[in-house]
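Q:
My hope is that you can spare some time for a protein that puzzles me. I hope you can help me see how the letters and the tokens relate. Thank you; the sequence and its tokens follow:
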Amino acid sequence: MARKEIQDKLLRLGTDVVGQIKKGDNPYVSIPVRALSNVKFSESKKTLSLGTQESKRYFVNVAHARKFMQTLLVTSFCKDLVEHDIHASIREAYYSLKRNIADTHENTFEEQGESDPIIVDLEVMLDILREQLHLNADRSGVAAGKVTVEDRGDIIDWSKLGSGGWSIPSNVEDIRFRKIDAKFVLVVEKNATFDRLNEDKFWAKHDCVLIGTHGQAARGTKRLIHNIHLQSKLPVYVFTDADAYGYYIYSVIKSGSINLAHASEEFATPSAKFIGLTMADIENFGLQKYTIRATDQDIKRAREMLKYPWFGAKEWQAELKLMIERKIKAEQEALASRHLKFVSEEYLPQKIKKKEFLP
């Protein structure tokens, strides 16, 4: 989205509020409801989206006044960022906006837990990504492969960054792909798995882009995966632990999340496929002695996921039910029980060759 369009949307929100005040109305802003009850799943697109429910946040309302004030403060702050073409972390935004209200003992924001949701509200209201509002979060994620990118004038070759790989920024809106020489994208949940595959030069031997998410993928990482696929049309395979949380990490990359349902088209990669680990892998690769007992929380989470329409495929219903029945889970690192290079030399190549994926 062009900077001018972003500026216009921010300015329009402010002028709408001013117009309401001039008319003598109780000023308000309308915010789409961000709750599971207002989240829809498209079977055709395989992504989540927000429904049409909205709530109004009024100034002259004891329950709303504080958040109304905070909403306009964040809007003004973002307007200044975009106009001056500078970026700030969401932590910096909190401190920049935290102040004492004159003649009171009240602060505009007591803690970052107040400012962060307001930022998301603004993102949803204006249909503008937080990153396009020049707000960044902590970086999390790493990449390697025969890929060359341009980042604000710097040319970076991901194949020549040693054992650490390329640290994925929290904001990838300025990243431009100059070359992608690969056959597929492999996304892995664990840092340890990324390090193993990077040390074994899996990306070079199998012509792939290797991306590590360090748990649940950060926004910048999800956006990067989305953008790589959008430009290259490469297949995306996701490799996580065999547990409810690993499965959900995959679903967020593929279909989006409940919290970010408003921006699924910008972050999700609907064609992504799950490469493992699965309950069947525990038997097929002799990992029975290397499983972990699933906790009550694991089982509860799996039961919740059975009800999600984006886990409605028969393969996923069977996978989740099997985990609940056996009450076990397995980590990616369990494959090292065979030998340290088993995951890079046998497990993944075999899975890819046989196209053993879950949808």
About this structure: The longest helix spans residues 3-22. The radius of gyration is 23 Å.
